[in-house]
């Protein structure tokens, strides 16, 4: 099969969506499919897929740009620069299937009119299923031939609208096995309990509330791996509430296992994630997990007494105390369900079924 993955952050960022879709692209290419990746970053050596650079203007340049439909965020502004250039690089006839998780500009560029057969359009709900089900404003333009739902809620909501497949995200399991802590190398203190957050600095991730919760534990040290438009506000709040007990890091994906191995508990404050790769990474690292108690999160991590109502910061602090008292353990067996080879195989099976359905029609 000739498969295209397109996303502005490819090879430019190592955020959740980029890491997830590149992992699928990598596994499909290794399995023999003809895979092309188009993204805004530079080419990387030794990747098994073909890479095409599509120039973008980084979302950081748009953090103070006006927001209005369809330019609802800095992400949408960045996607607009990518989608515009993508039109010059993308030839629909070269592919059997095109995959993205960005709406509206990447999605619409991949659906541009063409003479002859157009590729199947697969949309992945990495950033939510709102485009697939809203039907309002620019979302009325959404169409797809297949919807990859990253959690059961999305599948239940959309299965009557689009052909769907329930496929979670995954991780490179081997990367998290037998990893030694490296606090010194990461500039972290020894001899204190470390709480780790891995999160973008945006409102929905609630990093500031994480700082407020950790501040209730007088001996705990908070590390946040991530970046985003709220970095200045987060740094200022941490200086006030966690003086000498806070560090912000930005690491590449290969370096993240050392950070997980150097922590004692994992905290994530988002009320509802589309999936949340970070939870699986924490499981694979043997970390106790504190997160917002929802059926969706229990579907990923199982039943844990450290899941709580994270809007109650006292409850978060109590859950962190339980997590730190429990301490790290071996790699959680549940994480084995999320290895990338099996996840990519499910993508391929879904795509093959859609192509066969199109052929039969």
UniProtKB/TrEMBL annotation:
* Entry-linked InterPro entries: Glyco_trans_1 (IPR001296), Glyco_trans_4-like_N (IPR028098), Glycosyltransferase_grp1 (IPR050194)
Tell me which residues make up the Glycosyltransferase subfamily 4-like N-terminal domain: 16-175
Residues forming the Glycosyl transferase family domain are 181-326
- Keyword Flavoprotein listed? The answer is no
Tell me the superkingdom of the source: Bacteria
User: Is Phosphoprotein included in the keywords of this UniProt record?
Assistant: no
Q: Which Gene3D superfamilies would you find in this protein's record?
A: Glycogen Phosphorylase B (3.40.50.2000)
A single GO molecular-function term is:
glycosyltransferase activity
Keywords in alphabetical order: Transferase
Would you tell me the protein name for this molecule? Glycosyltransferase family 4 protein
| Organism per entry | Sphingomonas panacisoli
